[in-house]
Amino acid sequence: MRLCITAQGNDPEAAVDPRFGRCRYFWIVDTVSGEQEILGNPNGQNSGGAGVQSAQLMVSKGVEAVLTGSVGPNAAQVLNPAGIKIHTGITGKVTEAITLFHPL
After folding, report:
1. pLDDT tens across 17-36, in order?
2. Cα(67)–Cα(101) distance, rounded to whole angstroms?
3. Where are the beta strands (DSSP E) in the chain?
4. Beta pairing partners, 93
5. Rounded to whole angstroms, how far apart are CA atoms 95 and 93?
């Protein structure tokens, strides 16, 4: 499964970012292969549409679930039809979020 975890930093011990569309980084983790990709959020500083554009990016990356603090309604309108599961209220470190969602 391909997970996206919003993160405040590019270190595995970074805190989960409470924002989806304006998070600092996206951690994309393939729970089967173990591959990880860390993306600086290119939409975080946009004046508008950050949630939708970030959601479209996750669709293009083949993400199957998003782990974050919150997701706005516009982003959800892109993620839900794509079949991407949204898990909000996630806190702690990136590594903790991955382990809680997909124990090794």
Report:
1. 999 999 999 999 998 998 99
2. 9
3. 2-7, 25-30, 36-40, 65-67, 85-87
4. 15
5. 5
Give 20's Cβ-side CA count (13 Å radius): 29
Query: According to the model, what pLDDT value does residue 103 have?
Result: 58
Domain coordinates of the chain in residue numbers? 1-6+52-104
Q: What CA–CA distance (Å, rounded) separates 85 from 42? A: 22
At which residue do the structure tokens 């939708």 appear?
52
Q: Which CATH class, in words, describes the domain spanning 1-6+52-104?
A: alpha beta
Residue recorded with tokens 């706005």: 72
C-beta separation of 1 from 29 below 8 A? no
Q: Which of 64, 62, 95, 82 is nearest to 1 (CA)?
A: 64
- SS3 at position 49: coil
Task: Compute the Cα dihedral for 96, 51, 77, 32 and give only its sign.
Answer: negative
Q: Which residue has the tokens 């590019």?
A: 10
Taking the C-alpha atoms of residue 43 and residue 17, their distance in angstroms, rounded to an integer, is 14
